[in-house]
Design a protein that fits this description.
globular, 2 domains, alpha/beta, 9 strands, binds fe (ii) ion, Dehydroquinate synthase-like, alpha domain, about 375 residues
Length: about 375
């Protein structure tokens, strides 16, 4: 209660139609040419073209860069930065989920610092901020559009690195829930589970504050209520709106309170096996809550209530109730509960645990695990 906490967030416009104002906001940056950073899925849905049309309507030239994997690679960032510099762009507009947005953040800092993307790994290691960055998120999950994080895959070592810096906070986010209506069912489920894990990890984080807590706990109750419904009624704007809101609130929480062991372990998996980030998080959530529970009992009790449970008589009942609810919630969304279903075997676990121990997200977990304990948590999901 007596600790100082800072809270960083970009300017954002939230609501249906936000995407259409990209051009007029871009003009405020006095830019002439925008690099639109996106991926093939978002191009297929037509959102990137809509953003480009809005920019062109306001007199800006555009260049599209879309060679981005679901877990964006270092060389894709470098190629994007080369395109930005070669084509004379002076503004970046990221359109998509966490992958294009994280890549766009990387393109920005590589362009302004003329350094390799992997040299920025860690906390506050970006000397010069990138050019102006506008984000138009198209998933209700990553919150990369408002966070100070960028996660990039080091393709030679096959590990994900985290870059955390105030310089990565976008200048503006245009958050339009309509963009999520075209998401395939599996991505709605996986990105929604990512948002749930953001909220839960931020709430129990060692760096949480009353301001991050308010955002995190509200996000949990919104996701519990609206994620299953968004899956069953993909065109219902009420559920899409509330999921986008939940993702935003979870993002404001985790960008400032950081995350925990689920993300440290999921980053390790994603780097080595190129797995879906949301799916990895969903599989690891209950085993990590089980491990952490007694180190943040009161906070987990609040989370149990936000997940719709009645108050329990004692901590053990709360632990059991919360674990069952989280597992059932993921299963109800059609997400697998076992890493073995994704082809991961026990012999991989020591290396996975080793990388998870070095991830910056582990620092704010309610308790610091040993490498052996991390291995045991992975083993529970095989
Ligand atoms: Fe995440």
């Amino acid at each position: 209660m007596d600790e100082l906490r800072k809270f960083v967030a970009p300017e954002f416009i939230f609501g249906p139609g936000a995407l259409d104002s990209t051009g007029s906001y871009a003009r405020q940056f006095a830019a002439d040419k925008a690099l639109v950073v996106t991926d093939e899925g978002v191009l297929g849905a037509g959102w990137a073209q809509k953003v480009a049309a809005s920019l062109e309507k306001e007199g800006l030239a555009t260049e599209i860069y879309s060679n981005i994997s679901p877990n964006p690679r270092d060389h894709e960032v470098m190629e994007g930065a080369e395109t930005f510099l070669k084509t004379g762009c002076d503004l970046i507009v990221a359109v998509g989920g966490g992958s294009p947005i994280d890549c766009a953040k990387g393109i920005g800092i590589v362009s302004s610092n003329e350094q390799h993307i992997l040299e920025f790994e860690g906390i506050d290691r970006v000397p010069v901020p990138g050019p102006p960055l506008i984000c138009v998120p198209t998933t209700a999950g990553s919150s990369a559009d408002i966070s100070q994080f960028s996660i990039i895959c080091d393709s030679s070592r096959m590990v994900k690195i985290a870059i955390i810096s105030k310089s990565l906070v976008p200048d503006l986010s245009l958050i339009d829930p309509a963009t999520t209506t075209t998401l395939p069912k599996n991505l709605t489920a996986e990105t929604g589970m990512d948002a749930l894990v953001h909220a839960i990890e931020a709430y129990v984080s060692n760096a949480s504050s009353p301001i991050t807590d308010i955002n995190a706990i509200k996000a949990v109750s919104l996701i519990r209520e609206h994620l299953p419904q968004a899956l069953n009624h993909p065109l219902d704007m009420d559920h899409r709106y509330n999921m986008m809101l939940a993702s935003l609130l979870a993002g404001l929480a985790f960008s400032n309170a950081s995350l925990g062991l689920v993300h440290a372990m999921a980053h390790s998996l994603g780097g080595r096996f190129d797995l879906s980030h949301g799916e990895s998080n969903a599989i690891l959530l209950a085993p990590v809550v089980d491990f952490n529970f007694h180190h943040a009992r009161e906070k987990y009790s609040d989370l149990a209530l936000a997940m719709g449970l009645e108050p329990f008589r004692n901590p053990e009942e709360t632990r059991q109730g919360l674990l069952e609810t989280l597992a059932d919630f993921g299963k109800g969304l059609g997400i697998t509960t076992r890493l073995s279903h994704l082809g991961i075997s026990k012999k991989e676990l020591p290396a996975l645990a080793g990388f998870a121990m070095t991830d910056p997200c582990i620092v704010t977990n309610p308790v610091m695990p040993t490498q052996k304990e991390v291995e045991e948590i992975y083993a529970k999901t095989i």
